[in-house]
Predict the structure.
Amino acid sequence: MTGKRGEAAVAGFLAAKGHKIVARNWRSGHLELDIVSLDGSGLHFVEVKTRTSSDIAAPQENVGAVKQRRLAEAAKRFLAGSRGQFWGMEVFFDIAAVLDCDNHLEINYFPNAFIPTH
């Protein structure tokens, strides 16, 4: 439930910043994209990491090289299935770290957090 709450909060946060939410919890096989959004700069693939305590590693630190490769593969599949709708657009991989403590959500957004390498 914590993850869904964090994703909903981030979707609202992005919408308030002018993003159009294109997809949420998009899946293809074992791959998933939490949020896909569109703004004036391009298409954003947003990985949401929600935690209930800051005592463990910061949420954004849990998006390592393996997770980045999986997100890049999911993005490729998403784009391949989009029938050219997003052709020629700049693509960004963002991370939204959500701390959910005592019924208070704190969102830290890291646009263009990583550039996939293959």
Observations:
- The chain has a mean pLDDT of 90.
